[in-house]
Structures are given as C-alpha cells and as structure tokens.
Fold Delta-aminolevulinic acid dehydratase.
Amino acid sequence: MRPTIGQYPATRFRRLRKSDALRRLSQENALSVNDLIWPLFVREGENVSEPVTSMPGVQRLSVDLIVKAAEEAAELGIPAICLFPYTDPDNRTDDCAEAWNPDNIANRAIRAVKAAVPHMALMTDVALDPYNANGHDGLVQDGIILNDETVEALVKMTLAQADAGADIIGPSDMMDGRIGAMRLALEMSGHKDVAILSYAAKYASAFYGPFRDAVGAGSRLVGDKNTYQMNPANADEAMRLIERDLTEGADMVMVKPGLPYLDICRRAKDTFGAPTYAYQVSGEYAMIMAAAANGWIDGEKIMLESLMAFRRAGCDGVLTYFAPRVARILQGKA
Ligand SMILES: NCC(=O)CCC(=O)O
C-alpha cells in the first residue's frame, strides 16, 4: 500500500475525526468477542476458587468451577478457553509422567468442559513445566534440557489431551521438531481434525513471572529458559520459526508476549497470512491491573486500547486474562 497524501489545506485529516459517526465510519480495525481466547487455571478440589495474588481478578479454579467459567464464556460469546493446570506438588517429578496421565487435572477438566459446553473450543497447553520437579518445559539431564526425549513426552501428552476432547493443542515448549511429531501422531491416531496453535515465537521473557506463580512453577525453576525460548533481541528468527511450524503442520501461530512484540505480529501476518494470535501475558495483565489499582491509569480504557493494538498489528485473536471483562463491555453487559 502507498498512502496518498494531498497538500494542506486540500487534505485535512481532522475532517474525518470531526464526529463520532465519521470516526466510526473511517475506523480501520475492530475488536470483537470472536477475537478472544480466555486462559484459565485449573486445580484440584471442589468449589475452590483460589486468588492468584500477582494477577488480581484471576483465580485457580477446581474443575466444577472451570465448567461454570466455560459456561460464562459461552454466554458471553467467547469462542475459546485455554486450560493451564496447577499440579499438586506430589505430581511434579523428574520424569513428568503426570503430563500424559489420561486422568490428570487438565484432562479431567477438558472432559468436564466438553461434556457441559460441547460447542466451546477448548485449547490446551503442551509443555512439561506444570509437571516437572524443576519447573522446566522439557526433560532435564545434568542441567541440559533434552530436546528429542522431550518431544516424545510431548507427543504422549498431546494424544492424552486429544483423547480427552481438546479442540486446539497449544505447544508452548519451544522444543525443535515438536509440531511435526504431534501432527503425525494426531493423524495416525484418528485425531486428524484437532488443530495446533503453535507458540511459534515464544520469547524468554520476564513478563511471565505472575503466570509461574499461578501454576506454581516459579519457585521451582532451576536456572532460566534461555536455551529453548527466543532471545528478545531477535526478529528474523521468529519468521523462520513461524515458517518452520506452519510447514510442520501448525494451523495457527502465536507470538508471545504480546504488546512488547507487536512488530513480530505484524511481520508474521504480512509474511505468512496465517491465522496469527498473540498472548497478552500475565506480566502485561499485572502491570495494567496494578497501575489501575493505584489510580495511575484508567484500567478499562487501557485494557481496550491494548487489545485493539493487537488487531491493528494484524492479529486474528488474543489470549487475554481480560477476556470475560472485555466481552461484557463488547456485548453491552458491563
Ligand atoms: N505457557 C504459558 C506461559 O508460559 C506464560 C503465560 C503468561 O505469562 O501469562
């Protein structure tokens, strides 16, 4: 596109900003409930809603309350939720075997949600960190994160989630070769219509801090994730990763974190045209909530502005903890 600009006063940009009607008429992007994926944290128990201190307004919910949240999401028109497990400490081991247990907390929640709200698209998380004694996304040997052995474990985890009824598999682990391995396993096991939303460009970011509290992985993490997550200084590499994952069979791709990486979202959309998502991560959410709680910003306006920014950057959708709040506003139910 080559923008045409006439000379002043023939061109006055303020003409189209004169009234609300003209501003709406000339608006380029829109935010809708169809763009939202709501991440939820699931834990053991019944009727348990446990606040996540660093994420005001976010709770870890027992399966029965996850079902209620899914019903609320459906009523608000939110098309998808994404489940993250808070695993009991006893089930966090070096071999991560709980990750592919068909009856682990995540798989039980998938079954319960699909039974209650079958039309809700259910996205999962595929990474070993909620099940790992040392908080890493992959199997660890002598301080090294093993790639190929981890991919085998992730495939088992993927199949258990697909068997439980997952619609969208969300590999967030950043191992090499996992998308191809998962896609092949899904094809071979009768799950050919299960979609993969690849965390293709996931950066080694400090913005994930509150999330690690939410899933109980933060205090366990030994070292950092720099050998598998991306260097925040890199952009060309993100394009290569996205192309690689699309080629291996990803249906959708994600950039994560969100707002600090909008340049990557735009480039990804322009380069590949694939369904592209961003994750407005826990640290982004926490910063907005904390500043709003102090009265330093207008939290609601900043929430809406930040979500619109993803649409402007070319994203087809956003994973955001604000999903139900923004959906209520967009549906006139606030
Ligand atoms: N796989 C999910 C994450 O690693 C973090 C998300 C967040 O910080 O909200």
